[in-house]
Amino acid sequence: MDNAITPIFVSIYLLTILLASTEIVSLPVAALLGASLSIFFGLHYGLFTYEEAIGFIDVRLLGLLVGMMIVSEIADRSGLFRIVALYAIKLAGGDPFKLFFSVCFASAAVSLFLSDIAAIMLIAAAVGTISKLMNYNPTPYFVSAAIMINLGGTSTLIGSVSNMIIGTSSDLSFIDFINYLALCEIALWLITGAVLYLFYRNDLGEEKALSNYDPWEGIEDRTAAYKAMAVVILFLVLLALSDHWEVGPEAIALGCAVLALTVSGVEPAEVFKRIDWETIFIIGGFFVIIGSVEKTGLLAQLSQSVFEASGGDSLKAALLILWSSGLISAVMSNITVALTFSPIIKGLPDVNLAAVWSALVFGTNLGGAATPFSGAVCILCLGALKREGINLSFSEFTKIGTLTTFVQLGFSTLYLILRFGLWG
User: Fold this and answer.
1) Closest CA to 191 of 121, 128, 108
2) Taking 60 as the threshold, does the pLDDT of residue 380 lie above it?
3) Which domain holds residue 187?
4) pLDDT band for position 92 (50/70/90)?
């Protein structure tokens, strides 16, 4: 490691985080500024070549992201996800207990297929409608939906951007994610739902007769919804079978995106406008920033430090990664955390990598709803409540957010020990 220039690239990394966290500039601008400075100083000091700098960007991950966003946008435009959410809520009738758990599980389920931002916007629209019909306090439903959306998709490769980053860094397949993590996520759905219910049980409202409404009402083209459903199912099936082919998930995502555009008849330009380009640029920028720091040798040294701190013990390494990434994700974007920790884990020798990668998946996902500013989904939740005329304070959200985060991390600790046999 070149000790003389390492502080420069660490400073660029910290400056990027500082600019974004203080909102002096937006996160995409901060990431691109940090990437530009990293390339400038990296070329100036001969740390890497221009071609190497371009190689820092994982094109496979960006392809997976773009493909996913296009498929999700087409499905969202058809009204498919809103229909599913409203059906789940309708099944609850006028029972606030059933309604609450319907919202929780529908939120988590929808986030399996949509980005967290799209999911909270979708669920917020549905919950807002139902809370008005039932004259319920929307706060327990909105906050619980945000926390469950953050949890949902933890066990799938496409469940969150951080998962996609970890998947491409670790070479864990779609099936590997499910195999290692699905049982824990199902348990966490139930445990988190129970904690949320106990916390909000006195604020859910009384049982009432639910006004009759049709989830399909307002859907102008049912054929488009059925086509979108077929594409989403095909996408998931192909991802599950991708291990048997010599193609990556990004190829399947882009192929299904082309199919979705073809069968939907939607103007591509309209879809491309709705793609979350900010996330694309944030990830691209941080790839360059983290790649530059990695070139200094600092991350290799950190890997060795983690290994030494764990004494080469897989249990200590997994728990160190789980809790450090989880707590850091409470105050920093989990995308940034995943990009930072991934090269550190890749440098760990002689440990159970499946357990350590799983620990990083849990940490980066579960820490994202501890405070209102842990992630975009929480910020959007507060915005949705504000539109309903409710100003939820930082402390009110943090109280339940921190509680559920620690419960989730605690259970994940036990799960990792049992699932990977780390106690020996």
Assistant:
1) 108
2) yes
3) 6-55+80-218+276-419
4) confident
